[in-house]
Design goal:
The protein is an alpha/beta fold and about 475 residues long. The chain is built from twelve helices and 21 strands. Strands 4, 14, 15, 16, 17, 18, 19, 20 and 21 form a nine-stranded mixed beta sheet that branches. An eight-stranded parallel β-barrel has the order 5-6-7-8-9-11-12-13, surrounded by seven helices. A hairpin with a 2-residue loop joins strand 2 and strand 3. Bound molecules: ligand LLP.
C-alpha cells in the first residue's frame, strides 16, 4: 500500500529464491526521521527514546504491546496544517484515523476542526469539549438517531451522502425547528493511485453521489428546495495514502465545474468546497510525502485558478487530513516472543500483538518498517517477517524487513508510523486485549486510552 518497494529488497520477495535479498546498505540502528515521530532518538545506551523517555521504561510501566504517541509531534503536525491553510480555510482532522478525548482537546487547542463519522466519534468529540459548530458529520449510512443527535448538538455541517439522506436530514432538521448546514458529497470519477479499498472517488462504490449523468446536480437541485437544509458547499474525498496531487487537481476542476453549473442554474454561489483528506505519509524510507505548506499552496492555487476561469468567487476551502497528522506520531512497541529461523527462507519473529492491533498489513498489503528498540546491535542483518500471536497465518505486522541477527526473546522492537488506522481499527480477535495508547511529552508519559482487560471482555459477554 505504501507505494514503495521495501528499501531492503524486492517487492515481490516471496516469489524470488533466496539470495535475491540484499542486506540493507543503511545502518540497522539508524532511525530515519521520515518514518519516526519527531522526538524519537536513541540514548547513550542505544535504547530508543521518545519525548525524553526510554522505551524500556515505557514497557516496564505500561507493558507491551503499546501504542506510544508523541504528543509534541501531534501538536506540531496539527499546527503545521492549520498554519499552512491560514485563516481563509478550515482543517478538519479526520477522527477515524485515531480519536480519543485527549486528541480532541489537542485539536481544539491547536485550532483545528473535527470530522466524525459515527455516533461514537460524535460522542467522544462532544464529551471532550469540541464546540459542535467545529464538527463535520460524515457517513454513508447515518442512522436517524445519529442525525438527530448531530442536529440537536448543532454540528457545523452534515455531509450528505445520498438522495435519501438529503430528505432524511431535511426532515429531521425541520421537525426540530432548525436549518442544518450541509455539504453534498460527490464522486468526481477520479482514479486515485492507491489500494482499491481506500480509493473513494471512482463511481462504482458506496460513497457520495456521482457527478456523472447529472446526479450530483440533481442532488443539489433537490437540497436547495428543502427548508430544513442550508447548502453550504460540495465535498469530494478521492481516497487515502495519496502522494500525487494530480487526482486533487482533477477533483477540484470537476467540483468547481459543478459550482459553476449551480450558479448558472440557480443563481447561487455556494461558499465552501471540501477536498477531503488522503495525503500520504512515509511508512518506509522510500516514501516521500509532501509538507502541509506545499499541499496547501497546491490546493489553493488549483481552486483559485479554476474559479477564476469559471468567474466564480473563490469559495472557502476545507481539508480533512487524518493519517497525515496522526500517522507518523506513534509507533507500536512489541516484545519479541519467539524467533524462528526457517532454513533457506526467512526468520519469523513473533511479537505479543499482531493483526488485532494492526490489521493494515493483512488488509491492504501495507508496508511498515521496524527497528530493534531496547538496544543497538552490530550483528549481521537477517531477513525477517514480524508476525503476531493470532491463529491465522496472514497475521503479519511487517512483511519483509531486516533486523539484527542476534535478535532474541525479550528484546523490544518498534514499528513506526502506526498512529493512524491501527488503534482505531483494532479488534479483539482471539480475545486478544487491545493495547493502550500512551502519550509522551517532555519527559512525562500518561495513558490516554487504557489497555483492555479480561474483565472488559467478560463484561460484554452477558450470556
Ligand atoms: N475525509 C473523508 C471523507 C474520509 O473518508 C477519510 C478517510 C478522510 C477524510 C481521512 O483520510 P486520511 O487523510 O486519513 O487518509 N483504513 C484505511 C483508510 C480509510 C480511510 C477512510 N476515509 C487505512 O488504514 O489506510
Amino acid at each position: 500500500m505504501s507505494r514503495s518497494a521495501h528499501p531492503a529488497g524486492p517487492r515481490h520477495a516471496d516469489v524470488l529464491p533466496e539470495g535475491h535479498y540484499t542486506a540493507p546498505a543503511e545502518d540497522l540502528n539508524a532511525l530515519d526521521p521520515k518514518v519516526w515521530a519527531h522526538t524519537v532518538g536513541r540514548d547513550a545506551d542505544g535504547v530508543v527514546t521518545v519525548g525524553g523517555i526510554a522505551v524500556t521504561q515505557l514497557a516496564e510501566e505500561y507493558g507491551t504491546p503499546a501504542y506510544v504517541l508523541d504528543e509534541a509531534d501531534f501538536r506540531d503536525r496539527a499546527r503545521a496544517w492549520r498554519t499552512a491553510f491560514g485563516n481563509d480555510a478550515d482543517v478538519f482532522y479526520a477522527g477515524k484515523a485515531f480519536l480519543s478525548r485527549a486528541v480532541v482537546r489537542w485539536l481544539h487547542e491547536e485550532g483545528l476542526n473535527l470530522d466524525v463519522c459515527s455516533g461514537g466519534e460524535l460522542a467522544t468529540a462532544l464529551s471532550a469539549g469540541m464546540p459542535a459548530e467545529r464538527i463535520a458529520f460524515h457517513g454513508n449510512n447515518k442512522s436517524p438517531e445519529e442525525i438527530e443527535r448531530a442536529v440537536r448538538a448543532g454540528v457545523g455541517r452534515i455531509v450528505l451522502d445520498s438522495f435519501q439522506e438529503i430528505v432524511r436530514v431535511a426532515h429531521i432538521a425541520q421537525s426540530l425547528g432548525t436549518r442544518q448546514r450541509v455539504q453534498i458529497r460527490i464522486t468526481v470519477g477520479v482514479e486515485a493511485h492507491t489500494h482499491e479499498f481506500i480509493a473513494t472517488a471512482h463511481e462504482d462504490q458506496k460513497f457520495g453521489i456521482p457527478l456523472a449523468g447529472g446526479q450530483a446536480a440533481e442532488a443539489v437541485r433537490r437540497a436547495l428546495q428543502l427548508d430544513g437544509l442550508e447548502v453550504i458547499g460540495i465535498h469530494s474525498h478521492i481516497g487515502s495514502q495519496i502522494f500525487d496531487m494530480s487526482g486533487f487537481e482533477v477533483a477540484a476542476h470537476r467540483v468547481v465545474g459543478l459550482l459553476k453549473d449551480i450558479r448558472d442554474e440557480h443563481g447561487v454561489e455556494l461558499p465552501e468546497i471540501d477536498l477531503g483528506g488522503g495525503l500520504g505519509i512515509a511508512y518506509t524510507s522510500d516514501d516521500d510525502p509532501r509538507e502541509p505548506h506545499e499541499i496547501a499552496k497546491a490546493l489553493t492555487e488549483i481552486v483559485t485558478r479554476e474559479c477564476e476561469a469559471a468567474r466564480l468567487a473563490t469559495p472557502r476551502i476545507s481539508v480533512e487530513p487524518g493519517r497525515a497528522i496522526v500517522g507518523p506520531t506513534a509507533f507500536t512497541l512489541y516484545e519479541v516472543g519467539t524467533v524462528k529461523p526457517l532454513e533457506g527462507l526467512r526468520t519469523y519473529v513473533s511479537v505479543d500483538g499482531g493483526m488485532s492491533d494492526n490489521i493494515r498489513t493483512a488488509l491492504y498489503d501495507a508496508e511498515y518498517s521496524v527497528a530493534l528498540a531496547s538496544r543497538t546491535s552490530d550483528a549481521e542483518p537477517m531477513l525477517v517477517r514480524v508476525v503476531g500471536k493470532h491463529c491465522e497465518s496472514g497475521d503479519i505486522v511487517v512483511k519483509d524487513a531486516f533486523l539484527p541477527g542476534d535478535l532474541a526473546p525479550g528484546d523490544l522492537i518498534a514499528v513506526p508510523a502506526t498512529g493512524a488506522y491501527c488503534r482505531s481499527m483494532a479488534s479483539n480477535y482471539n480475545h486478544v486485549l487491545r493495547p493502550p495508547v500512551v502519550a509522551v511529552r517532555d519527559g512525562a508519559a500518561r495513558v490516554i486510552v487504557r489497555r483492555e482487560t479480561e474483565d472488559d471482555l467478560l463484561r460484554l459477554d452477558v450470556g
